[in-house]
C-alpha cells in the first residue's frame, strides 16, 4: 500500500475492520515519489482506483486492476494488461468536463458486484498461471 503519511488512518480503519492481511506490505509515508516506479515494478499485479499510480504500473509493465468510479474509462485508462471493474451506468465525469460532486453515494460509485469479483479472480488466476509457467521455463533453462 502506498500513500502520504496522512493516509495511514484509512489503513488503520481497514485493519480494525478486517484484521491483519497476510503478505501485505505497508509503504504509506515510507517511499518517495521518485522511488515509486521501482517499487511498483516489483509487483505481480497493481490494484487501485483510477489514480496516477495505475499509469505508473502500466508504464513499467505490471498488470493493473482498475476500480473505476464516475470517471469515463473510455477516455483515459491504462492500455496494457488491464482489468476494468466498475459500473458504466455511473459514468458522468469526463476528462475535459470534470465534476467534483456526484449525485450517487460513494458506495454506489465504487460498488463491486459478484461478476466483478469473478472477473478479478479469473484475471489474477491467469497471472498466476503465467508466472508459474515462466518459472518452470526459467528452471529448465538453468
From TrEMBL:
Gene Ontology cellular component list: cytosol
Keywords: Glycosyltransferase, Transferase
Gene Ontology terms, MF aspect: ADP-heptose-lipopolysaccharide heptosyltransferase activity
One GO biological process term: lipopolysaccharide core region biosynthetic process
InterPro entries: Glyco_trans_9, LPS_LOS_Heptosyltrfase
Cited SUPFAM superfamilies: UDP-Glycosyltransferase/glycogen phosphorylase
PANTHER family tied to this protein: TETRAACYLDISACCHARIDE 4'-KINASE-RELATED (PTHR30160)
Protein name according to UniProt: Lipopolysaccharide core biosynthesis protein
